[in-house]
């Protein structure tokens, strides 16, 4: 029986990252940048007003607001307003000493002006303005290159492109960027007993639940997913071979008891070695994995049991997809929590117990309530779970109050 660590190491070593592609910046959101985006032009490209007000020379209003030495009254400085500059203005304006120009936020700063007086520090005059507050040189001004200078790196390689990065790329005039694309994942269900959900089940037939659940899981962790649907054992080679040409990961589900897994391995033998073996974990202790086709595409054979398939995907397939996406931390976040109830765990296997993780608002400590196991086939318990309690193989019993390791799942809502 292979340990979880050994099997996971084998799986992740086979990760295939798609080659970087160049896409429009709106399409890049959520993907990892594959280049150093170097700025060619300064941002902002010109000195501009950072607030609505009046562009002035700071020296002309240096005394405003001070107390007059003779009368003790506040000094008011009056300046003629010689023009107005709106955002987007393309005609340069030159400010003479002792003058002011009305400006909007984002407007180019007139020549010789070195500061902007906010409207609230003035009387708002149009032909002349009374100023009761001084302003420092550079105050309320965005200088050329304050954000980035030519040669600066706007977005670094390995950065996940989010809203801020999209905005920055747009601000520096970059309409496209090189990114690591989403790995393409094909999901195939194998079994004569399966029917799709748009049909009625007959005697001995069940709905193909696993492929829908696994396709959703792959999409949830960032993949581009193609759900192939249901194939019989006699058609599995043709279906897999077709997907190997268009996918970075292939995931199959099938009943793995009896000769079913041997039939699938035999059908795929000419494409590569798909090894079905026992893994020291529960659920999903029987799994298959191999690198198939000329490109050695990672190919999984998971149980048809939807609950087991989802846990196997979470433990084995998800990290591989996250690595293919270029993520530095492909594994789920782990925390330590106190178990709210006692439960048993099989010896010699790493147990993954569905749970509901809570946090004490007063102490900040985590507590986890295991969800009663009424059968590993029930999806209801996983739908209610927001975490998996990870129990080491040598632990056979967890008591209420014991510390346990918990892996966060995607939060609901």
Automatic annotation (TrEMBL):
Pfam families: MoCF_biosynth (PF00994), MoeA_C (PF03454), MoeA_N (PF03453). Catalyzes the insertion of molybdate into adenylated molybdopterin with the concomitant release of AMP. It comes from the Bacteria. Residues 186-323 form the MoaB/Mog domain. Keywords: Magnesium, Metal-binding, Molybdenum, Molybdenum cofactor biosynthesis, Transferase. GO terms for cellular component: cytosol. Pathway: Cofactor biosynthesis; molybdopterin biosynthesis. GO terms for biological process: Mo-molybdopterin cofactor biosynthetic process. The keyword Magnesium applies. Its EC number is 2.10.1.1. Belongs to the MoeA family. Its cofactor is Mg(2+). GO terms for molecular function: metal ion binding; molybdopterin molybdotransferase activity. InterPro entries: MoaB/Mog-like_dom_sf, MoaB/Mog_dom, MoeA-like, MoeA_C_domain_IV, MoeA_C_domain_IV_sf, MoeA_linker/N, MoeA_linker/N_sf. This is Molybdopterin molybdenumtransferase. It catalyses: adenylyl-molybdopterin + molybdate = Mo-molybdopterin + AMP + H(+).
């Amino acid at each position: 029986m292979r340990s979880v660590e050994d099997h996971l190491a084998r799986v992740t070593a086979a990760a295939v990252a798609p080659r970087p592609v160049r896409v429009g910046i709106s399409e890049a959101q959520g993907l990892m940048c594959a280049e150093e985006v170097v700025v060619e032009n300064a941002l902002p490209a010109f000195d501009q007003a950072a607030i609505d007000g009046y562009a002035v020379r700071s020296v002309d209003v240096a005394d405003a607001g001070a107390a007059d030495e003779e009368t003790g009254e506040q000094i008011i400085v009056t300046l003629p307003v010689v023009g107005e500059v709106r955002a987007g203005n393309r005609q340069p304006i030159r400010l003479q000493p002792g003058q002011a120009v009305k400006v909007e936020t984002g407007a180019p700063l007139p020549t010789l002006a070195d500061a902007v007086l906010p409207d609230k520090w003035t009387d708002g005059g149009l032909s002349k303005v009374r100023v009761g507050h001084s302003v420092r040189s550079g105050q309320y001004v965005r200088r050329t290159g304050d954000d980035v200078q030519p040669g600066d790196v706007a977005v670094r390689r390995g950065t996940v492109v989010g809203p801020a990065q999209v905005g920055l790329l747009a601000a520096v005039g970059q309409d496209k960027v090189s990114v690591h694309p989403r790995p393409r994942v094909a999901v195939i269900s194998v079994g004569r007993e399966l029917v799709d959900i748009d049909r009625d089940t007959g005697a001995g037939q069940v709905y193909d639940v696993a492929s829908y659940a696994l396709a959703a899981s792959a999409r949830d962790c960032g993949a581009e997913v193609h759900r192939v649907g249901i194939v019989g054992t006699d058609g599995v080679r043709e279906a897999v071979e077709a997907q190997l040409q268009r996918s970075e990961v292939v995931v199959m589900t099938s009943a793995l008891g009896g000769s079913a897994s041997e039939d699938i391995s035999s059908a795929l033998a000419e494409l590569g070695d798909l090894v079905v073996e026992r893994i020291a974990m529960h659920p999903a202790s029987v799994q298959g994995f191999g690198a198939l086709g000329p490109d050695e595409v990672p190919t999984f054979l998971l149980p048809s049991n939807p609950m087991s398939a989802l846990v196997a995907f979470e433990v084995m397939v998800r990290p591989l997809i996250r690595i293919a996406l270029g993520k530095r931390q492909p594994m789920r976040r782990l925390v330590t929590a106190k178990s709210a109830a006692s439960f048993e765990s099989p010896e010699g296997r790493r147990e993954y117990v569905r749970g509901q993780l809570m946090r004490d608002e007063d102490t900040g400590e985590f507590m986890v309530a295991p969800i009663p196991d009424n059968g590993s086939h029930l999806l209801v318990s996983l739908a209610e779970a927001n975490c998996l309690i990870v129990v080491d193989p040598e632990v056979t019993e967890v008591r209420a109050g014991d510390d346990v390791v918990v892996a966060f799942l995607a939060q609901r809502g």
